[in-house]
Design brief:
Chains A, B: It holds the Pfam family Aldedh. Chains A, B: Keywords: NAD, Oxidoreductase. Chains A, B: This is Aldehyde dehydrogenase family protein. 2 copies of one chain form a homodimer. Chain A has 17 helices and 19 strands. By secondary structure, the first copy, chain A, is α/β, with parallel strands linked by helices. Chain A folds into 2 domains: 320 residues, Aldehyde Dehydrogenase, Chain A, domain 1 (3-Layer(aba) Sandwich), CATH 3.40.605; 195 residues, Aldehyde Dehydrogenase, Chain A, domain 2. Chain A has a 7-stranded mixed β-sheet, with helices on both faces. In chain A, helix 10 links the parallel strand 10 and strand 11. The radius of gyration of chain A is 25 Å and the shape is globular. The two termini of chain A are 28 Å apart. At the A-B interface, helix 5, strand 3, strand 4, helix 16 and strand 18 of A face helix 5, strand 3, strand 4, helix 16 and strand 18 of B. Strand 19 of chain A pairs parallel with strand 18 of chain B.
């Protein structure tokens, strides 16, 4: 058995205290022997290009691959084995009994080893895979899609362990019934639900996939990973690592398989409605996510869809610092994170120590700050990275058009030149200003570098608008700048009721939407942005059942 | 704040060790001052008859009541206020914020007090209410519907506490981001899902209702109790006690309300599809339960429906003792418990120390044992009690008719004379013998005093038949008698996979289907008998969400 007990115990402590901790270095340059590992990862990635991906799966019926790098806008040319869903489910089902029979520690330590191998042996391959599928920057691919995603995986194991340990493995029970004393020995078993299907999205596959997958595996289930056809490689690498590890340790590798589909011939509903599907983890669009929630039954559904994320800027001790923080976060990965702020609700005047500042001045400051951040191509490439999907550019155009007639464009979007990848698909943020009557335009996630400034009647109105939109349209994050503590308290209540995680008066170098594993809860389940939280007991406990058998105590027992 | 901390701690320990424990005396005669309390409870019950039930509810539109005592077959004559569902939901929603804002201990100790008041002040009123609605015997109404149900309520509080305490209330978090150290104070809130609707069944209302209701309340939700129109009184008493307690303690009594409907005008689907319905707890028929599971979304659904409960009798060290135990449990409350054994799968010969015993001999022994138990009216009334619902008698007749042409009647059902209540609706068990080709007849719950002996090809076949029926048709309990340890091990595996809780080789005075709070898990969620388990973390953890807010650490904080 692998010994990751110390790391695991430390992770347990972090989940309890929710302090800052990670076993992994935060930045690529702090990775051990980064000078060797980073180029080796790049070389490993490059060696995969234009080749069939070596992955042994049951029921392969053909090879598909349609990934296009947002950095080169050229196909990666990697093809992956496409397996028949019936065969995958059958193989996954058959793999479960021996895995479920292993003791909790064996499963947990093996899964910790899998994460550790992703970290030790494949992290920079994954970094490049994420860059050239999701289009993230190198640093974000390392941090957000790399080590932080691994941390979320460990965190899921901590909660899985907690939920499983809450069930005693056995008991002695004795009671008098009338004339006779009945003494029973009881054994309790944890029975996995069955085969889980884990859907991952195009822009941030690992961060949701790893915790979902590990929560299912830790509790004894098998997992079929169903990546978005645009972002297969990070999941294919994951599947290959876990299959090899499972086989090496004497378990059936079909506990972890990959199910590919194509944009033209999606398999999502087939998988979800498959009679052997017991659990669905879904990250992706709100539309399909809501279908999953309503239709996955009898499978359990854990969803994380989209975020209509709101900012209330009522006042600030240091307005420029607040604007800078906001602008930076709105630029981060071209706002293609489900936690990216999108809607900035402004009262007529913003309260500062120097007196009230008119809304339009603040709106212009925000536009200027975004423009400043994205002017220098080198800086722009670090922060904006690329646009994952071509249709996002069309969406920007559509919103611009709408705004021209219904509001005003504060800052137009343009392609910026990426110095390392001249053909990169890029777009600086579009920032438009609208009245509340344009709710149809702004009150849902407009995925990509699109921001809205919304004119409100007062600070209270801004808060009411923002939290109403978050509650009704699924906010994951909320951001507040205010000087009035009573107002802040009301905002905390309102955001809690709206089900969005709130960040207050934060300035400085931390991205406002940074969600730390072991500390920050992600998605509340209280609004349309999804029903699952990374990570609570509710995310893991339903993945297994408890059965028992009991019999009179035997003399020899 | 009420101080039930010691009892609660003891309950926590019992849930961890799963040993035998209860703060309550097991039998009515051990109740403190039973000589006074029991007649006082009867008098209190009798004073309720023929009267409007004094219960102050919001939105009352009329008075209804159609309970008929299975003991007298006369209407109780009690009418209850019928409240408008929209008003109930609105009142329940409005009651939540201050309740959710109370700290965990305040809620838990208040709910413990509520259970304690049911025990101290109303137990014998409840006993009579259960007798004259569900039709249970006095002893069962005290034990199963009384103290054991209270225990299941405390148990739900233990798991609710565990799930809530897994979330730290606050944290300090600090990390370096490039040049700056970011230090955040974070607060985490538990946010209840909203309004829960708790459906209770006619035959065993309290045992499922109390844990469901307390799980919802403990986690900050409000509860609308929706009793079966035939068994309102136990729930009306419950609602009255909790409303008075809540009001006395400064909380809004509308946290607990009652929604009445009638058989002619059911409100179930209206409540479940109400936009404010956030949680559904359902105990009742498999048909409606499956509808709830598939249609409650976006509300959470926790269900416990019916049990196609199986017995494999392959061998016994003491065949007569096994038969006696089986016969007793098949008679208990006329098999109107969701855990009552129904189908006895017999191989051609049963293995005993004295040699193999032919199946038909064993079948006859079972029929004889049931006949013996039900011959003496005094004994019969203690064990069989009454038949809750008139249609059950029709079902007995239908099964008898089917069996006459498709198998044979081993023991016919008849009304037995109840000495205390000459007009009681009674029926001794019908026991029929069938081949496997009659699966359409026996492979589902036939609610009431109906047992099937099923001819199987071998012990292995009996096990395969039983566990297949349990898995496909929803078994809650399974019972095994066997001498071969290897066979027992295979049976434990097979029943675990089928999702039924197994009792092995149990003889003596304990009812085979006795499910002890703090020790026995009830319903696995792995087959059609329901999706919720009393009590796991999965039963409580999804009832609340976690929201957070975070901000830079303040100097004064």
């Amino acid at each position: 058995m692998f010994d990751h007990a110390k790391t695991f115990e430390r992770a347990q402590a972090a989940c309890a205290s929710r302090e800052c901790w990670s076993p992994f270095p935060e930045m690529p340059k702090l990775y051990p022997d980064a000078d060797i590992a980073a180029p080796a990862g790049l070389a490993a990635f490059e060696a995969l290009l234009g080749q069939p991906f070596a992955l042994d799966l049951p029921g392969v019926t053909g090879w598909v691959g349609e990934e296009i790098s947002p950095y080169t806008q050229a196909p990666l040319g990697i093809t992956y084995p496409q397996a028949d869903p019936d065969t995958l489910f059958a193989a996954a089902k058959a793999a479960i009994p021996s895995w479920a029979a292993a003791d909790i520690d064996t499963r947990l330590m093996l899964l910790m080893e899998g994460l550790d191998r992703l970290y030790r042996d494949h992290l920079f391959t994954l970094v490049n895979a994420v860059m050239h599928t999701a289009g993230q920057s190198y640093n974000m691919a390392y941090a957000g899609s790399g080590v932080n995603a691994l941390d979320r995986g460990i965190e899921a194991l901590v909660y899985a362990e907690q939920a499983m340990r809450a069930v005693a493995p056995s008991a002695r029970w004795a009671r008098r019934f009338g004339p006779s004393e009945i003494a029973l020995e009881k054994t309790y078993r944890l029975i996995p639900r069955g085969v889980a299907v884990c859907f991952t999205c195009a822009s941030f596959a690992t961060w949701n996939a790893w915790p979902s997958m590990l929560a299912s595996l830790a509790t004894g289930n098998a997992v079929i990973l169903k990546p978005h056809p645009a972002s297969v490689l990070p999941m294919a690498l994951t599947v290959r690592v876990f299959r090899a590890l499972l086989a090496e340790q004497g378990f059936d590798p079909n506990l972890v398989t990959l199910c590919l589909d194509t944009v033209a011939a999606p398999l999502g509903k087939v998988l979800i409605k498959h009679p052997a599907c017991a659990i669905v983890d879904f990250t992706g669009s709100a539309r399909f996510g809501h279908w999953v929630e309503a239709n996955a039954h009898p499978a359990l559904a854990f969803t994380e869809t989209s975020g209509c994320n709101t900012v209330v800027l009522a006042g600030a001790e240091d307005l420029d610092a607040a604007i800078r923080a906001l602008a930076t976060t709105m630029c981060m990965f071209s706002a293609q994170m489900c936690t990216s702020p999108q809607n900035v609700y402004l009262p007529p005047v913003i309260d500062t120590p120097a007196g009230p500042v008119p809304r339009d001045v603040v709106a212009q400051k925000l536009a200027d700050a975004i423009a400043a951040l994205t002017q220098d191509p080198r800086k722009a490439s670090m922060i904006l990275a690329t646009v994952q999907a071509e249709p996002t550019l069309g969406l920007i155009g559509w919103v611009r058009e709408q705004a021209q007639s219904r509001g005003r464009v504060l800052l137009d979007s343009r392609a910026y030149p990426h110095l390392d990848f001249p053909k990169a698909r890029t777009a600086t943020p579009l920032l438009v200003q609208l009245g509340k009557d344009a709710r149809d335009l702004y009150a849902e996630e407009r995925f990509g570098p699109i921001g809205f400034v919304i004119d409100c009647d007062s600070a209270e109105d801004a808060l009411a608008q923002a939290t109403t939109d978050a509650r009704n349209n699924g906010g994951i994050t909320g951001f507040l700048y205010a000087r009035d503590e009573a107002f802040i308290t009301r905002a905390e209540d309102a955001y809690a009721q709206a089900g969005a995680q709130l960040t207050i008066n934060l300035t400085g170098a931390m991205p406002l939407n940074f969600a730390a594993a072991y500390s920050d809860y992600h998605v509340t389940g209280l609004n349309g942005a999804g029903n699952a939280t990374l990570t609570t007991l509710g995310f893991v406990a339903p993945r297994f059942a408890v059965t028992q058998s009991r019999r009179p105590v035997r003399n020899d027992a």
